Amino acid sequence: MSAASLPARADVVIVGGGIVGCSIAYHLTKIGITNVVVLERKQLTSGTTWHAAGLVGQLRATRNLTELAKYTTTLFEGLEKETGQATGFKQNGSISLALNEGRLEELLRGASMAKNFGLAIDVLSLGELKERLPHYNFEGVTGGVFLPKDGQVNPIDVTQALAAGARSRGGKVFENVKVTRILTKDGRACGVETTSGTIAADKVVVAGGMWSRDLGRSVGVNIPLHACEHFYIVSEPIDTLPRNMPVVRVPDECTYYKEDAGKLMVGAFEPKAKPWPPHGKGIGIDEEHAFVTLQEDMDHFEPILTSAINRVPLLETAGIQLFFNGPESFTPDVRYYLGEAPELRDLYVATGFNSIGIQSSGGAGLVLSQWIKDGHPPMDVNGIDIRRIHPFQSVTRYVHDRASESLGLLYAMHWPYRQAETSRGVRRSPIHQYTDRLGAVYGEVNGWERPNWYARDGVKREYEYSYGRQNWFPCAQYEADRLMNDVVFFDQASFAKYHVEGTDALAVLNRVSANSIDVPVGKVVYTQWLNERGGIEADLTVTRLAEQKFLVVTGAAPQTRDMAWLKRQTGDRNCVAVDITSGLPMIAIMGPKSRALLQKVSGADLSNAAFPFATSQEIEIGYARVRASRLTYVGELGWELYVPAEFAAHVMETLLAAGAEFNLTPAGMHSMNNARMEKGYRHWGHDMSDEETPLEAGLGFGVAWDKPGGFIGREALLRQREIKVLPKRMVAIALDDNGPSAPMMYHEEPVYRNGVIVGSTTSGAWGHRVGRSLALAYVKAEAGVSADWLASGTWEVELAWKKYPAKVQFAPFYDPKGLKIKE
Ligand SMILES: Cc1cc2nc3c(=O)[nH]c(=O)nc-3n(C[C@H](O)[C@H](O)[C@H](O)COP(=O)(O)OP(=O)(O)OC[C@H]3O[C@@H](n4cnc5c(N)ncnc54)[C@H](O)[C@@H]3O)c2cc1C
Q1: Using CA atoms, how far apart are residues 449 and 666, in angstroms rounded to an integer?
Q2: Mutational test site, ligand 1, from 358, 360, 406, 410, max ligand atoms within 8 Å of CB
Q3: How confident is the model at residue 287, as a pLDDT?
Q4: Residue 426 and residue 443: Cα distance in Å, rounded?
Q5: Residue identifier of the C-alpha nearest atom 2 of ligand 1
Q6: pLDDT (tens digit, 9 = 90+) per residue, 214-230?
Q7: Which residues does residue 339 pair with via DSSP β-bridges, in sequence order?
Q8: With contact defined as beta carbons under 8 Å apart, do 773 and 766 qualify?
Q9: φ, ψ for residue 326, nearest 5 deg
Q10: Distance CA 592, CA 509 (A)
Q11: Among 158, 221, 589, 772, whose Cα sits 20 to 30 Å from the Cα of 236?
Q12: Which of ligand 1's atoms lies nearest the C-alpha of 350?
């Protein structure tokens, strides 16, 4: 369409004519939003899309992301018929091969997950694999899985088909129109300025591929991504190559193989990638960039090619027709970005596709279009929600350095507890020097270095990964023993904290919280924040500091998200929320001797009468004044100490000096996670999301049904309360096997009742105080999930294609009555 016919206004303007932008336009027009404009600075697909390999896989790390990838395949199946535009869609399936036992376990665990998600998958014997892949060398292969519904497409044709679909319903697509500025008014995006004029819009979508970061930054929106060079080669035609060859992945050799018009394509996800541009001084992508091919780098690709020739000996004589190198965006956590930006209303983002943009395009378009229409996502997409990002993550050097690792992670081993190796040491607790001295082994969350465990008794101070008990198991056992019998401290500086105050602070927070916040000063309230559908948007505590002043404490990961949610509900009322995370670290003192220790250092009366559970007071420790809140996430007597940052080292020293007498021991985040699993304490992002309600999550005790003014989500919850026995409920699971080789549960494992899959684990860990492999899970039953239904079933959990008998109940496995907390 000619730029001269640019409209003055549109309902939605989409910046970027790659596969993602066109998919969003396609899906918006499909749900009735037809006044949609796509603006492409050059030609459609000229960014990254044109050179994609076109692999379309379906199995992702979570149920909903798998559903979206599955949907993409379904969309591609019918697109040619609908639009008349060929897409090159072929569904020959895909095979992944393992070259060692760890990888095989990964594939088998993935196969069980796939079964759980309703994906067709077969675990093949070596004989069956050889039959399907006669041209492959099977040296070192330990096994493999086959996904028959995986496929491949021609990305340029698919993009054109999506654009055609959008146009057929009234959407407009303009090429050679560059968006030079996003227009904003009153904290909202309201249009774009382009090289061919201005368009006013209700919503603007940034789908600009690797250019998105700069575009976002121009309006204060964080979109941390960086391009990397991404390589493949295409052989000369090979007569004997079967046209129905499935896509083959050999992740241990970082390679994938695809038949392409009689030629063999070999692509790579090498462990150390080359960020592009290489200098780390900003994206600064050339104005003229279109259909760009980067310089070949045979030295870099050579190890890949050598193993490819060994794996597919046909390649040795076939000759290479094309050596391809093109840029693609990568994100710090290798997950793409979708949704409304927390910094700017009506600005939506769909970018950072980490080399799976083709297979994600359908699902991303589907979700974002509905998000735009309804103002909220149609399902839990927390893993890809742009609100998971912290502002520092778009710092150039951080994304540049991390991108070199992100690319390789696509095929690296996805070990449990795996930690990033690049861009580390970014955010440190004020007591970092002490935890370091005590042997902490750190993990990273949003840049925070958090002690995950403490090395002791000769255990090396680094992770040795496996799917079973990792090297830190005995260290975690020691920490759990001290937690149960003595006293430990956790460095929880990373937990996000906000001060909320103003003459309307109580009214705002009380409406946002499902529990009652109108409590006496000094009371701590555990609550969820719900959406209108009753789904859990946040899970946190609120402490009333004064009549109209509150302290909100939430996890490290939702720091941006929870604040954005609160601000959206505040409107123009007199209620100011300030993020004080950096200034207020927290040290948690937990265990039966915590009272004695804290009384010694503070002189305060911490008895049940003077300091009841779920209350908060200022106490003195050494020369400092700190806020102590009697709470626990680990199921023992304990206090959380909120210490102004500059006093934290002194308070830590005071505690350590006094602690020897009580056997005070440092404990890490893994111990905290293990302990909360034993207590059945839910974790937002794993065990609950905006899809689950407090009633389903078993958190109905925290709902103040009849408080004056109600709360967001009450009507939906009231409707659900009418159903006496809910068809979906969270349960606690313990495997029967408690021996040394008992397997670990992690997430998304299928849960069977009487041989039928009825649910899925959401998180799992070893319970060191109960000596069992534990998980939380949602189970479903049409007639309702009751205690009788749980007790009358025979339960199993499938792990790596094998079923294990289990016990399933509503109550937690450790101290179910909560007596220890109130000792
Ligand atoms: C070698 C290689 C192989 C790959 N293989 C696969 C694969 O097998 N399977 C798979 O799923 N994925 C694959 N990918 C990844 C896939 O190609 C990308 O994830 C996908 O194309 C991203 O699409 P996009 O629409 O987000 O970005 P792009 O295709 O880059 O589109 C963004 C568009 O926005 C335009 N734009 C930017 N700024 C502006 C502006 N200010 N105004 C107007 N227009 C603007 C750009 O010109 C560009 O055309 C591969 C990538 C590479 C590099």
Answers
A1: 15
A2: 358
A3: 79
A4: 12
A5: 52
A6: 999 999 999 999 999 99
A7: 349
A8: yes
A9: -135, 155
A10: 33
A11: 158
A12: 26
Cα separation, 305 vs 395, whole angstroms:
34
The CA dihedral of 285, 286, 288, 289, to the nearest 10 degrees, is -40
In short, whether 351's Cβ falls inside 6 Å of ligand 1 is: yes
pLDDT of the residue at 170: 98
Predicted local confidence at residue 277, as pLDDT: 85
Compute the Cα dihedral for 346, 352, 358, 364 and give only its sign. negative
Q: How far apart are the CA of 48 and the centre of ligand 1, in A? A: 3
The best mutation among 49, 177, 231 to test binding of ligand 1, ranked by most ligand atoms within 8 Å of the C-beta, falls on: 49
Alpha helix (H) residue ranges in 133-242: 155-168, 212-217
Q: Is the CB of 207 under 6 A from ligand 1?
A: yes
Residue 140 has pLDDT above 60, yes or no: yes
**Where do the DSSP E strands lie in 547-643?**
549-554, 576-579, 586-590, 616-621, 624-629, 638-642
Q: Is the CB of 273 under 6 A from ligand 1?
A: no
**Is 42's C-beta closer than 6 angstroms to any atom of ligand 1?**
yes
| CA–CA distance, 250 with 269 (Å, rounded to integer) | 10
- The answer to whether 715 and 703 are in contact (CB under 8 A) is no
> Tell me, what DSSP letter sits at residue 176?
S
Torsion of CA 387, 389, 391, 396, to 10 degrees: -140
Specify the DSSP class assigned to residue 427: B
DSSP per position, 510-529: HHHBSS-----TTBEEEEEE
Report residue 426 as tokens.
């970014």
- 793 Cβ contact list (under 8 Å, min separation 6): 753, 754, 808
- pLDDT tens-digit readout, 450-470: 999 999 999 999 999 999 999
Question: Would you say the CB of residue 414 lies under 6 angstroms from ligand 1?
Answer: no
Task: Specify the ligand 1 atom closest to the Cα of 231.
Answer: 1
User: In 282-304, which positions are buried (b, 16+ CB within 10 angstroms) versus exposed (e)?
Assistant: ebebeeeeeebebeeeeebbeeb
CB neighbours (10 Å) of residue 657? Answer: 12
In 3-state terms, what secondary structure has residue 731? strand
Instruction: Compute CA distances 523 → 365, 614, 637, 773, 817, whole Å.
Output: 45, 6, 17, 35, 22
C-beta neighbour count of 178 within 10 angstroms: 17
Query: Cα–Cα distance between 527 and 554 in angstroms, integer?
Result: 10
**pLDDT, tens digit (0-9, with 9 covering 90-100), for 17-32:** 999 999 999 999 999 9
Residue that the structure tokens 């970061």 belong to: 213
Q: Pick the closest to residue 340 from 386, 299, 389, 279 (CA basis).
A: 386
